[in-house]
Design brief:
Blueprint (H helix, E strand, L loop, with lengths): L1 H28 L12 H14 L4 E7 L11 H12 L2 E7 L6 E8 L6 H17 L3 E5 L6 H9 L21 E5 L9 E5 L8 E3 L9
Parallel strand pairs: 3-4
Antiparallel strand pairs: 1-2, 2-3, 5-6, 6-7
Helix pairs in contact: 2-5
InterPro entries: DUF2726 (IPR024402), UCP028063_topo_Znf (IPR014538)
Pfam family, one: DUF2726
Protein name: Queuosine biosynthesis protein QueD
């Protein structure tokens, strides 16, 4: 009798296994898929190509990166953690530039599509600025009309990624007309950031933000 009981149990187990396996296959067969087209539209693709050229071998460019893959909440209690995580779970960074070795995010970039401001767009911008500021990730905003201007992108990125060098340019002091030189802040809130200063210091103390965008053509 024991032998028969063992055989019956084995048969039942085998039947349930096969049934479950084929039922799962049937469920999958009911769902078919097709390609959803390019990940980026034409304007986003143009910017992506310019960004890739600006970064070169000094970083890895990724697009449409979910925020929760880049940052995590710092809340100590579970409720606070879930609330903070839900805020970023369905949002993403337009583009991020990562370290080529570790893939750690160095810079986040938001591309303005030129559409009018609405409630959703304003809320997204607030979230982006808050997330990047609290996580210590530099956030660069740029617009579609500058998509093809690699030099401008390189100047913006060079502020945050040391290996990226902008095209050489000569700036002259707007106060005294002397050539300006590049220096790096050694203290304060902008420690490590580059800036232009007049070569006649300390006689002339005029300075300029390193990533000022001029209306020159490429």
């Amino acid at each position: 009798m024991e032998y028969i009981a063992v055989v019956v149990l084995l048969f039942i187990g085998f039947y349930l296994f096969v049934q479950k396996r084929y039922l799962n296959q049937d469920d999958l067969k009911d769902s078919t898929y097709k390609k959803n087209g390019p990940l980026l539209n034409s304007k986003e693709s143009a910017f992506y190509a310019a960004l890739m050229t600006a970064v070169g071998d000094h970083g890895v460019v990724m697009s449409k990166v979910v925020m929760s893959k880049v940052v995590v909440p710092k809340a100590s209690d579970k409720k606070g953690w879930f609330i903070a995580n839900n805020r970023i779970a369905k949002s993403y960074f337009d583009y991020v530039v990562c370290d080529p070795r570790s893939l750690e995010v160095r810079v986040a970039i938001e591309l303005d599509d030129g559409n009018p401001l609405n409630k959703g767009k304003i809320e997204r911008q607030k979230l982006l600025m808050h997330v990047c500021k609290s996580a210590g990730i530099p956030l660069i905003g740029t617009s579609v009309k500058h998509s093809y201007q690699v030099g401008r992108l390189r100047r913006l990125l060079a502020t945050h990624i040391d290996l990226i060098e902008p095209e050489k340019e000569v700036r002259f002091c707007k106060r005294c007309g002397s050539p300006m030189v590049i220096k790096t802040a050694t203290q304060g809130d902008f420690k490590g950031r580059r800036f232009f200063t007049c070569s006649r210091q300390p006689h002339c103390t005029y300075t300029e933000n390193y990533n000022i965008v001029f209306e020159d053509s490429e």
